[in-house]
Amino acid sequence: MGDHEKKTVLFEQVARVGKALGSGKRLELLDLLAQGERSVEHLATAAHLGVSTTSAHLQVLRQAGLVSTRRDGTRVHYELAGLDVFRLYEQLRNVAGERVADVGRAREDYLTSGRTPSSLTPTQEVSREELLSRATAGDLTVLDVRPLEEYAAAHIPGAISIPLEDLPRRIDELPSDQEVVAYCRGAYCVLAYEAVDLLHAAGRDASRLREGMLEWRLHELPVESGATAVGPDIR
Question: Which UniProt keywords apply (predicted)?
Fold first, then answer.
């Protein structure tokens, strides 16, 4: 019949992962790390946390095997430990969305906050498949509106980087004769919605990628890192 005490120990070890996921702020850090490798300082700024608090949360995630680290001098960089962690986070998010009614309401409230009533019509969306096909043909411009650190860590090949906060003064840098498809972090990210609103207000043809960088990476589609790319280069 087996040793029940050893069985208890087994389940307690598995529960370490569940306990690590049992914090909204740690889930937010996983969402940020799904964009690519980040330093503690950058994560703290993005999550609106102190550096010491961020470091403590990351240590819990590291002890559960969900993140790994790389040291660069005195700075420590974190990333998700593997594609299975990406999938675990996505599945947790999906189950919560299906089973907890408050999740859907909270998501809708967040994604519409700060947007003007006139912009709250359904945002036109483009699927991954359509983006790949049309970008290869060169008939649209892919726009990454995440912070520069996230773009540098990983982005869709050929995407132009203009962080949302810079977009109002840099719209003229985008081709005026093509549809612009904006993307950001994923299903819980408002940046692309706001970018499309800004582009529409400026008279530009714009859509939102239906999903973001998290889902792009989960489907193991090509990514680039580093300096700003110009022009379509999706392979």
Answer: DNA-binding, Transcription, Transcription regulation
